[in-house]
Write a structure and sequence with these properties.
The protein is α/β, with parallel strands linked by helices and 346 residues long. 31% of the residues lie in helices and 29% in strands.
């Protein structure tokens, strides 16, 4: 059993470690899970991710309660084609799916995971980002995946519901070294239907579109949605398309924060990325490293972060060779070779 230290790491470390455990059929013991966070140990979305992966591969697992700081995970063969999980309150649905996506490399038949919880909540990408940014980028590299949203869920009530569909995938090396030509922006704004009278989703979208247009970015279209939800909330996503990559930048509504400010926050983050040289943002890079672990690859990101550093250290724990080059205004990360095909059961 491989012992890993999660003291200085966050939830992505846990998810990547479990994904690699399933992919390589290696048992792991993860100690000090999120130990340096204000609320150490597993939160609801982390516990749900452990439970889902354990159900998929019939794993023997301990330490799955919320608050647990030690998790042991002994994977078995993939043995199911559907899992249904309730994350609880507004725990992130997208982060549960994040742990499952790499398993596509070991599938021999389709798999679906239905999760109930938060679709648009803090400290996680909104479901729209997964649907319109991450999955199209992964499909470029061979991952067969799609998401269906049934309901939207905001903090604190949650109640959102979505299903991830995965197919057997042969993952190609992750090549995120060149953007190619820009193909403009798309703005997607959503708010609970109770905020419709105040035109909150429309005001968010208009503010984002105006800010992007003022800076010369082409906005191809903008959508607004008012959804039936268990509690009030708003979210906006600005997605940027390039010839060879995508990027997404989001913001959530807050009590007392004007809708216009929410829209401008997302637009400003998108513009900062667009004006730089990176091919994927550092948050997406942290999520893509597990796929580079599978097939090898290179990513160019704006800057090194603690999350990326801990993810790279984790890949090295699994025997992968990693190389980092610092450039002017960017960092290039290369994962050499990737896991041997035999480790993926091929």
């Amino acid at each position: 059993m491989r012992t890993l230290d999660g003291e200085a790491a966050g939830g992505q470390f846990l998810r990547t470690a479990l994904s690699l455990s399933v992919l390589t059929e290696t048992s792991v013991r993860i100690e000090h899970v999120r130990a340096d966070r204000p609320e150490p140990g597993l939160k609801s979305q982390h516990a749900a991710a452990v439970d889902v992966l354990a159900a998929i591969c019939d794993a023997d697992v301990t330490g799955t309660d919320v608050g647990s700081t030690t998790v042991t995970f002994e994977p078995g063969p993939i043995s199911t084609n559907h899992v249904d999980v309730d994350v609880g309150t507004a725990g992130s649905v997208a982060l549960v799916f994040d742990a499952v996506l790499p398993i596509a490399a070991r599938l021999t038949e389709p798999l679906s995971v239905t999760a109930t919880g938060g679709t648009d909540v803090t400290w996680s990408p909104p479901l729209a980002s997964l649907t319109h940014v991450k999955l199209p980028l992964l499909r470029r590299h061979g991952v067969q995946a799609a998401v269906e949203r049934d309901r939207t869920g905001f903090y604190p009530a949650g109640g959102g519901r979505a299903t991830l569909h995965l197919g057997q995938s042969t993952i190609a090396p992750i090549d995120c070294t060149c953007r190619g030509d820009g193909r403009g922006a798309v703005v997607r704004s959503i708010a609970s239907e109770g905020l419709g009278d105040a035109d909150v989703a429309d005001r968010q979208a208009t503010a984002a579109v105006d800010r992007l247009a003022d800076s010369g970015l082409t906005v191809h279209h903008s959508t607004t949605t008012y959804a039936e939800t268990a509690c009030a909330g708003t979210s906006i996503l600005v997605s940027l398309a390039y010839e060879q990559t995508r990027a997404g930048f989001d913001a959530l509504g807050e009590p007392g924060l004007p809708a216009e400010d929410v829209g401008q926050r997302a637009a400003e983050a998108a513009l900062a990325f667009h004006e730089g040289d990176a091919v994927v943002d550092e948050h997406m890079a942290d999520q893509l490293l597990v796929f580079a672990a599978i097939a090898g690859g290179t990513l160019v990101i704006p800057r090194m972060t603690e999350h990326v550093e801990t993810s790279l250290a984790l890949l090295e724990e699994f025997g992968l060779e990693v190389h980092v080059d610092d450039g002017p205004g960017y960092v290039q990360i290369t994962v050499h070779d990737g896991l041997e095909s035999a480790a993926l059961g091929r």
